[in-house]
């Protein structure tokens, strides 16, 4: 399952005689457990995903921090004409005692992806992982839809202050500063040149 997922290999790979030959050369007793049909691929992936998900839920509930925190971003694919919302959770792993993170959701939005719809999607993920009592801080960019999103989330989760719990993305802020410096300065210079041309005329 890991090979299929990580390397994005077609499910027909399971049926390749060459693949079977490699496995059997390592362990001739593997013949009885080798998958032989491409239809087994999706089933194996779903089963493996469910197992890993259960492990992640346990890690999140056993986190050493009382709250878990989220980084949420939305971006649009110009080729597929679809938008995607990524939700990443950050927590302190009880086993390693280190900061850990995991992708909880990568949801596709077709059509509108306003703040209310994003909030609905986030709350569904919170329920799915049973994190309602552990929701902490949010790191997001400065898009207006994120204000609406957090306002709606705050209505559903007791004690959540949408202003205090929101951390701005420093990378996005720096990008805006640089763009303002580069492009607004250029626009200002054009305006000054135009004024000089009018004065000379």
From TrEMBL:
Keywords associated with the record: Metal-binding, Nucleus, Zinc, Zinc-finger
GO MF term (any one): zinc ion binding
Localisation per UniProt entry: Nucleus
CC per GO annotation: nucleus
InterPro entries per the UniProt record, alphabetical: RNaseH-like_sf, ZnF_BED_domain_contain
Keyword field contains Metal-binding: yes
Top-rank lineage group of the source organism: Eukaryota
Protein name (Swiss-Prot/TrEMBL): AC9 transposase
Naturally occurring in which organism (per UniProt): Fusarium oxysporum f. sp. narcissi
Phylogenetic classification of the source organism: Eukaryota, Fungi, Dikarya, Ascomycota, Pezizomycotina
């Amino acid at each position: 399952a890991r090979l299929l997922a990580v390397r994005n290999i077609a499910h027909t790979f399971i049926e390749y005689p060459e693949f079977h030959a490699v496995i059997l050369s390592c362990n001739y007793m593997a013949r009885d457990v080798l998958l032989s049909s491409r239809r087994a691929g999706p089933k194996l992936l779903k089963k493996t995903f469910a197992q890993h998900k259960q492990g992640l839920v346990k890690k999140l509930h056993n986190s050493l921090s009382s709250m878990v925190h989220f980084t949420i971003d939305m971006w649009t694919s110009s080729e597929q004409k679809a938008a995607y919302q990524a939700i990443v959770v950050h927590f302190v792993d009880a086993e390693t005692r280190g900061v850990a993170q995991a992708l909880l959701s990568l949801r596709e939005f077709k059509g509108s992806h306003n703040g209310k719809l994003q909030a609905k999607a986030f709350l569904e993920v919170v329920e799915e992982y049973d994190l309602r009592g552990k929701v902490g801080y949010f790191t997001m960019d400065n898009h207006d839809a994120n204000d609406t999103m957090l306002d709606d989330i705050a209505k559903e989760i007791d004690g959540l202050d949408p202003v205090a719990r929101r951390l701005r993305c420093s990378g996005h802020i720096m990008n805006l500063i640089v763009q303002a410096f580069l492009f607004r300065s250029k626009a200002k210079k054009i305006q000054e040149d135009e004024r000089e041309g009018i004065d000379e005329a």
